[in-house]
Amino acid sequence: MTIFAFTNDDPGMQQPELFAELLDFLADQGVPGTFFVVPYAGQQPLDAKPAWVALLQRAMADGHELAHHGYTHETPFEFGVPPGFMLDIIPDAKTRWQSNPASVAPLHTAEVLRHKLEAGRVIFQRTLGFIPTGFRSPCLGMCDTTYATLADMGFQWSSNQVINPMGWRYINRDYAAGESWTPGLPPRPFRHAAGVTEIPMHSEYTWYLTEDDVERHFQLAKADFDRARANGNPFVALSHYYAMTGQWATGLRVYEKLFDYARQQGDVQFVTLSQLVAAQKEKLNHELTIGNG
Ligand SMILES: [Zn+2]
How are beta strands 134-136 and 157-158 bridged, if at all? Predict the structure, then answer.
């Protein structure tokens, strides 16, 4: 059996109507998603945004999972330093990190990180009546202190490491980068040294695509799915609702093709990340522990 997890970031931020379009698509497809929700985007708590509250309640009723995504999401350095392939598509952040790395350090003390996570949790509890068990950082910027704080606060899993950076090279339209899967990173869930389960994602495939991009980006996703399946590992995709809907709904076409392809292979199960962790529990117990990559 191959496990397929569709994940999507940034609900709580701009354009809720585009999130509704994604929910409609997933309902048609019968595919559950894991949504990484920002609790305090735009300096306003989630419960001050009725359109988002209604959509997130619908998402839960539809069988999707909601997880914790940063706090304000205003800076890519909110919970750590994004990986190099991410900084390459955010030039301002890259310049800041290269010219003044000390300027981000105050964001990453245990006290500051815990405060942001606790404040986010209060908003989730107050708005939606539950506390998420999973976390993803804005722009995937993580640090050891964030992993340790997640473990200390009882988060069960994190999904922040990237198996195939090529998705971001594609965003830069560098299709010939020829970058390999991340060396040293297990391409499957593993127990992070801090104590949480890390669920690496394969890549981002649908960032503001045009008609001409569909087949190329489908092929990148398909190759990752095939390689995961051949090795008996889960496949985990990252996406952003606003970059794949509306005038950019070409991204939904990539997923339509990918879901169809996965079903054609047979014995595929579409799951949320908490379901993925539960399904992989036996394997995790025998997994090596490694430090932060
Ligand atoms: Zn995000």
Answer: parallel
Nearest to 72 by CA among 117, 40, 106, 119: 40
Query: CA 276, CA 64: separation in Å to the nearest integer?
Result: 13
**What SS3 state is found at 163?**
coil
How close is the Cα of 266 to the center of ligand 1, in Å?
32
pLDDT digits (tens, 9 = 90+) for 171-223: 999 999 999 999 999 999 999 999 999 999 999 999 999 999 999 999 999 99
Ligand 1 centroid to Cα of residue 162, in Å, is: 14
DSSP 211: G
For ligand 1, the distance from its centroid to the CA atom of residue 72, given in whole angstroms, is: 10
State residue 33 phi and psi, 5-degree precision: -120, 160
Sign of the alpha-carbon dihedral angle for 149, 151, 155, 159:
positive
| Amino acid at the residue 81 | V
Phi then psi for 204, rounded to 5 degrees? -100, 130
Q: Which of 75, 149, 160 is nearest to 119 (CA)?
A: 149
State the distance from the centre of ligand 1 to the C-alpha of 9, rounded, in angstroms: 5
List pLDDT tens digits, range 55-87.
Answer: 999 999 999 999 999 999 999 999 999 999 999
Confirm if 163 and 123 have CB atoms less than 8 A apart. no
